[in-house]
């Protein structure tokens, strides 16, 4: 049984200017113990997908479809039930730790609160567990540092504190929404290595949302490429990097400068990211795709097998024409 | 007449974009303001009141200082509002027509409020923008002066001025004007500090644009939004201050009158069955203030830069 | 074309006064060394990439060169003239030749002006007598150069996407035909596919107009792609300066080596077999930098001498300089 099974997920927002379709027809599943990367640029819907899954949408957003976690439906559960799941089974860390941590409360209190509330342990036990978790995320001098306030930590340290907090209840799934985008590259390397180690130690699964193709290459087992709210390609990271079978994935890979490469010009994808106000008819990438045919503008492509079992692509144009 | 027709406005906006005229932020703000029902209705009501104060006198039978000897002294019996007697709003205790007096009061109160706010806005904006942009010691000194002036007990000084130099509209202006620009200068200074660090100001400085041009071309236009909001909220504050002074008996001199003075008189006779003497001026006063507040709120929401 | 450098920065130092919490008003403010003794030269048509992490001083360096922040010491020699020695009004004519583009594309444009006015502003500022028709023609010309259609001239910044806003910023920087454009993180806020468009645009313009660029960014991959040579900064100090290829192929300073190994390469096979050099610890405080070599507190090679003696920034190979006692 997969850990997560998402079917026909659709997320919409009601705005003053009309209905914005942020996520459309998303289907994927994920096994335990794996790291799945969700890749996309701004407007791709990658963050809204996981917010929709975990009930964290803004009040004007609505999610439909089915999201099964360990076989049980969790989409649109009551807030009460979701709160339980959110700390104990599914944890989440965000891009900016400063906005996720309360600046007026000491880290010790913020961490022990989680344990006391969700697992009913005593204050002293909670403190012990919190300190050992800070050790696990390699914060030096944890027993003293835990009494500090969030702003007294550096950016990278704060992110570690976030990670520690999210692991307190030993969740099965950790969702990391652009966890290192705001960090320096050397700090990013530390955090990604930490996540990989923790994943092994705690047996967690991770959904990693990012736009950085380098991070995806180094840290994920499987990946899912989104554009304009829909999935373009999904499969094992190795396979997709070796031969991207979707025009968008291809375009993205060519547009990223590589440190170990010395090509003269970057191959660009012409045009601009999609305007999510007008829900696209047909494939959202069609306006910028050099392979697009008439069908692409009228009919939205569904995921079909690309090569082996786990590799799918959503494209009307045959794989051969693109490779 | 402002009628909110959402669909029409939307197509209008789309056409503008297509014709390449560009959708400036002011147009956006106007559209958002119009969509705010409370603000639009308030604007309509306020404009009606202003219109009333201009056109009303043409329907008046009595002037505001004429005494109706019939009603004098017996306002409770003879002075109630009626169309036949020409006293649409009734009379006051001296037999003067309340309709005309309310119009007079409206004119005076609104004028004091709007003019006072205008002066406060101009002085406050220039002072605050300069202080904020120049920064350093100049800014410190200028703001300390504001702090000192703000710590003066406002009403006390105003009353002192009016008692010592005599009651007149001019004195009222000076007194209120002296102190109402202070808040505005603080707000403008804060906003200027905020703007000063924005990248487009940096870009202008790197290009070599002069300080003066930066203030006029880049800073002030981006201040107008907040200034407009606070100016709209300043007017009722000034009207309230003037009304309070008049209520104390130190405001405009007879036979001129203002809302505050009328309310004072009306409140004084409330136990004598002459409710109209209080209710009419009070109604105008309260409705106008509410309108200003709603408009101010509407402006603030419309100009919120969060909408991008 | 002579081979004299158009820009020579010599021993530039920038300090800021900071006061900590709990200080009395009369306590002397402490000095934050934002830029410490930086020197480099730049030729026409060259691109100098400046990389480093938070607190390395790269943004401050850019601003010191255009005199947006006061420099404590050093020289900024532009075409033979030391800009730092000039007064405010004497500097003004040079501003035609040195322009800047910024990190947040939308914030660098005045929201109340349409883009035609924004792009024309430098022209109107320095040549106020230019007839209106000529101004319009110049604006259209430069808009076309950056790939913007003429009819967009009356639109306002918020009507454009991030990539388009950055193009507007570039158009504004180009209208006076400058010799140097300083780019402060110009693509960090843009999507990958748009980044590539803007980077290509800058490189094309550079070739066409023989522009020199100073390209400041934290994304080493982008910097290497566009730069002729790269300068690595750490806590306000120069750590290494070399040709782009050499920085990648033979980094000599431990910090550069760690930086290079930390950059994720979009290739799973390369990533999984990488020898990752991790630097532990936190960035030291720039108010109280470590004695001797500023990197020693996090350096695996650090020895006693590193605390006692600050390593000299010296050449170790052709066009390759490093500041380290134990460089490779």
Features:
heterotrimer, B: 308 residues, MetI-like fold, 72% helix, elongated, disordered N terminus, C: 328 residues, alpha/beta, Rossmann fold, eight-stranded mixed β-sheet, 11 helices
Structural class of chain C: alpha/beta
> Any low-confidence stretches of chain C, pLDDT <50, length ≥5?
none
Amount of helix of chain B: over 70%
- Amount of beta strand of chain C: 15-25%
CATH-defined architecture of chain C: 3-Layer(aba) Sandwich
H/E series of chain B, N to C? HHHHHHHHHHHH
Question: CATH class of chain B, please?
Answer: Mainly Alpha
Query: Rough shape of chain B?
Result: elongated
Q: How would you characterize the largest beta sheet of chain C?
A: 8 strands, mixed
Number of domains of chain B: 1
Radius of gyration of chain B: 23 Å
Tally of DSSP β-strands of chain B: 0
Quantity of strands of chain C, as a count: 12
Describe the structure.
The complex is a heterotrimer of chains A (323), B (308) and C (328). Chain A has 323 residues and is α/β, with parallel strands linked by helices. Chain A has two domains: 4-89 and 171-322, P-loop containing nucleotide triphosphate hydrolases (Rossmann fold); 97-170, no CATH class. Chain A has helices at residues 46-54, 79-88, 97-100, 107-119, 123-136, 142-145, 155-167, 185-202, 213-219, 237-242, 247-255, 294-298, 319-322, and strands at residues 4-15, 18-30, 35-39, 61-69, 72-73, 90-93, 173-177, 205-210, 222-227, 230-236, 304-305, 312-313. The mean pLDDT of chain A is 88. With 308 residues, chain B is mostly helical. Chain C has eleven helices and twelve strands. In chain C, the strands form two sheets. Chain C has an eight-stranded mixed beta sheet, sandwiched between helices. With 328 residues, chain C is α/β, with parallel strands linked by helices. Helices cover 31% and strands 22% of the residues of chain C.
